[in-house]
Design brief:
Blueprint lengths: L1 E2 L3 H12 L6 E3 L10 E4 L1 H9 L3 H7 L1 E3 L5 E2 L5 E3 L9 E5 H9 L7 E3 L2 E7 L4 E7 L2 E7 L2 E3 L6 H6 L7 E11 L10 E5 L2 E9 L2 E8 L11 H8 L5 H8 L6 E8 L7 E2 L2 E3 L2 H4 L8 H14 L5 H4 L41 E2 L4 E2 L6 H7 L12 H7 L5 E4 L11 E5 L7 H16 L4 E7 L2 H5 L11 H10 L4 E6 L2 H4 L3 H10 L4 E7 L12 H11 L2 E5 L21 H9 L3 H8 L3 E8 L4 H5 L4 E4 L10 E9 L2 E13 L10 E6 L10 E11 L7 H18 L5
Parallel strand pairs: 1-2, 1-12, 2-8, 5-14, 12-19, 22-25, 23-24, 23-26, 24-25, 26-27
Antiparallel strand pairs: 3-7, 4-7, 5-6, 9-10, 10-11, 13-16, 13-17, 14-15, 15-16, 18-19, 20-21, 28-29, 28-33, 29-32, 30-31, 30-33, 31-32
Helix pairs in contact: 1-4, 1-9, 2-3, 2-9, 17-18, 19-20
Length: about 725
């Protein structure tokens, strides 16, 4: 049960539901309506929101403000101006807009409005919450109670009766206005004697402003707040006056600003405080909502074993219980009790897929939250290789985005690229990455992208795809990579400058100790960064950079690739496949080119001819070899170790005046139904071009010859 339906409360509900819990939110207001003024969300809170799947929506709805970098004096002089290359913009909203965006993520009925919490009592099994509605007094039993009911928290007052009362700090006025064309600023923060004035754009041509003033006595009120603000800001620069001139008198809010002293613990039994109920802070810090969001997401990630809460925070390290209890053991008490027939605690796709080792539920980047909680991350905090191996013993870890970073993540060695095909050049790069990681006793991470960056930057230019994501993960696992991380390539990501990409992805998220890339590696908006810049940024941020030489080799016809004429690259492999030269492609890949697909029903003509074929429906961008007939190995998904010989036709079946390009495989010596199965073809050799025969008999005779040659190429003719 969550007490309080503000931003911290609804974020907690989203995060806890995502982690598999049933949640009820009790909110004393009769309805969720537009209240408050503006607020800013800093990167630490955005990263927490990323962990529960709402970060992108929040970013899309936000308006950037550079107020934290545009610092001015009352006369208008700039102490400094924001530098977008190095500063970070704040994401700004009207409070009601952000609250609505988050609340809409919850199912109807999750938030019970008009419900005022009046008391909480704890027990060994959970807690009892008493609350009042228009219908009377009620009680609810809960396995966990989250006090998100603000600075004047009833939950806090009930269970921490001796806690310090809120402390008066200063008084403040806030307003939201629409200044129109007279406000060209992108956010400012002006400091005067005993006062500050900040302004953030919050979207919809609105600007949020706030005046904070030192005051000796709380509770003083004024008949005309706007007039009082004007009086106190007389003589300040003209941008201040423009905002006040555009502000209606009834749009000004006046409040005394309080904060709270620290408690020894914010946990008592099965009750925990978050946000302002735990550690209210003054708004000039810009972290009130941010810390509530971080609290909520971190809490959701640490409730796998609720017994740890009973031990108290001094003895219960959240990093040691992120993955929940051992297999077969209950996760603990749900927030709201379920009936016996309610089904599984976790919806499909939630929780932990232990066979894969992937963390799918909350997907919390806990390393980030450790930093944001006020603790400094030190070398002692970072996991040793043995700990990494203990958490993930089975196979390469597959992350879909950086939100899947596991708890306790420390430093690592990273290699970056699309790695389409995982050809011999990629293999050398990956081997170097694994070597550097082993020498440093750190996990190795391959950071790749989906979709292909070309499709986002230049829609319609997606190159032929040599390997699916799944195949790519299988290949890099064989090469010893520990983590296969697929970063969704979005328009937003493409606009990150080289500096931003390094800071936000490599440093802030992955904690890279070393980065291994090819010597022609580029990165950042418009590929502005290169290996030299990466090395420079590495020196600044504390990671090593290795620029590996491009790889070439001896080609099948004996031509030397080290002459500079041929270098192993995805583009080169695509050109080989496009020309039907699957032998050259295999030499560059270090294995036959593989084409995957689902077996679908064809026209049945092969069966009538005595050579029934499996017709493949291939992925949209798959690299299909040039028209012709090929000797292949046929591999079924459910029997990956069993290779079946196959003669494969690629083309339009010109003998029968076909128009649609198809891939048809005649699997030798097997009489099975492959329909609906996911299969793969490994192209070993090319038999001939696609030919239009004058008669069906001639075609059948040629197919017989194709089968004999297939056996010979695959070494089965004996």
């Amino acid at each position: 049960m969550v007490a309080g339906g503000g931003i911290g409360g609804v974020t907690a509900a989203i995060a806890l539901r995502r982690a598999g819990w049933d949640v009820v939110v009790l909110e004393r207001a009769p309805e969720l309506r537009e209240v408050g003024a503006g607020l800013s969300i800093a990167p630490n809170a955005l990263r927490a929101l990323d962990a529960i799947g709402v970060g992108e929506d929040v970013r899309a709805a936000a308006t950037p403000s550079w107020a934290a970098g545009n610092l001015r004096l009352p006369g208008g002089e700039y102490l400094r101006r924001a530098d977008p290359e190095h500063d970070t913009a704040l994401s700004c909203f009207h409070r009601a807009d952000l609250h609505r965006l988050l609340a809409d993520r919850l199912p109807a009925g999750t938030v019970r409005t008009g419900a005022t919490v009046t008391g909480v009592s704890t027990s060994a099994a959970g807690a009892t919450v008493r609350y009042r509605t228009a219908e009377g007094e009620h009680e609810i039993e809960a396995g966990l109670v989250v006090g998100a009911d603000g600075i004047h928290s009833t939950v806090r007052a009930t269970l921490w009766p001796d806690a310090p009362a809120p402390r008066f700090r200063y008084t403040a006025w806030r307003g939201v206005t629409r200044p129109g064309s007279v406000w060209p600023e992108d956010g400012t923060f002006t400091f005067g004697r005993g006062a500050y004035f900040l302004a953030h754009p919050i979207g919809g041509e609105r600007v949020y402003w706030a005046l904070g003033v030192h005051a000796e006595t709380p509770g003083v009120r004024y008949p005309d707040d706007l007039a009082e603000v004007r009086r106190r800001l007389t003589g300040w620069h003209r941008r201040v006056g423009e905002l006040l001139d555009a502000t209606p008198a009834d749009a000004v809010l006046h409040n005394d600003i309080n904060d709270l002293g620290a408690l020894p613990t914010y946990v008592r039994g099965r009750v925990v405080l978050l946000g302002d109920a735990a550690h209210a802070m003054t708004p000039d810090m810009g972290q009130g909502a941010c810390q509530a969001i971080e609290d909520a997401v971190t809490l959701a990630a640490t409730t796998g074993d609720l017994a740890a809460y009973d031990a108290g925070p001094a003895r219960a390290d959240p990093r040691d219980r992120l993955d929940g209890p051992p297999e077969g053991q209950d996760r603990g008490v749900a927030i709201q009790a379920r009936p016996p027939d309610a089904g599984p605690r976790h919806a499909p796709g939630a929780g932990v897929d232990r066979a894969q080792g992937d963390r799918q539920g909350v997907g919390l980047d806990t390393a980030r939250h450790r930093r944001c909680s006020g603790r400094t991350v030190t070398a002692r905090d970072r996991p040793r290789r043995t700990r990494f191996a203990r958490q993930y013993p089975a196979s390469v870890q597959r992350w879909r985005g950086l939100g899947d970073l596991p708890g306790g993540w420390g430093r690592c060695v990273v290699t970056i690229g699309v790695f389409d095909g995982v050809h011999r050049g990629h293999q050398a790069l990956i081997a170097r990455t694994v070597e550097v990681a082993k020498n440093r006793n750190l996990p190795s991470v391959m950071l790749t992208f989906d979709p292909h960056p070309s499709e986002v930057i230049r829609p319609g230019s997606h190159p032929a795809q040599l390997t699916t994501l799944r195949r790519k993960a299988e290949l890099v696992e064989q090469l010893g990579i520990d983590v296969f991380c697929v970063l969704p390539f979005t328009a937003e990501l493409s606009r990150l400058t080289a500096h931003e990409f390094v800071h936000e992805v490599l440093v802030d998220r992955l904690h890279a100790a070393a980065v291994v890339v090819g010597e022609n590696f580029t990165f950042g908006h418009k590929a502005a960064g290169d290996v030299a810049l990466l090395k420079e940024l590495g020196r600044r941020f504390g990671f090593a950079t290795f620029g590996a030489e491009l790889q070439g080799g001896s080609m099948p016809d004996g031509e030397a690739a080290d002459s500079g004429e041929i270098t192993f690259s995805s583009t080169y492999v695509r050109s080989c496949i496009d020309a039907g030269d699957v032998v050259a492609a295999a030499d560059a890949l270090g294995r036959p080119h593989r084409l995957e697909g689902i077996v679908v029903r064809g026209d049945g003509r092969g069966h009538d001819l005595g050579y029934p074929t499996a017709n493949l429906s291939t992925p949209r961008f798959a690299a299909v070899p040039a028209d012709g007939v090929y000797a292949c190995w046929f591999v079924r998904d459910n029997q990956p170790g069993r290779l079946l010989p196959a003669a494969v036709s690629v083309g339009t079946n010109p003998t029968f005046s076909g128009r649609e390009r198809t891939v048809e495989a005649f699997v030798l010596d097997v009489d099975e139904d492959f329909y609906g199965q996911h299969v793969a073809l490994d192209f070993v050799g090319r038999l001939r071009d696609m030919v239009k025969f004058t008669s069906v008999d001639d075609l059948v005779e040629q197919i017989g010859d194709d089968v004999r040659r297939t056996r010979a190429i695959l070494g089965l003719d004996g």
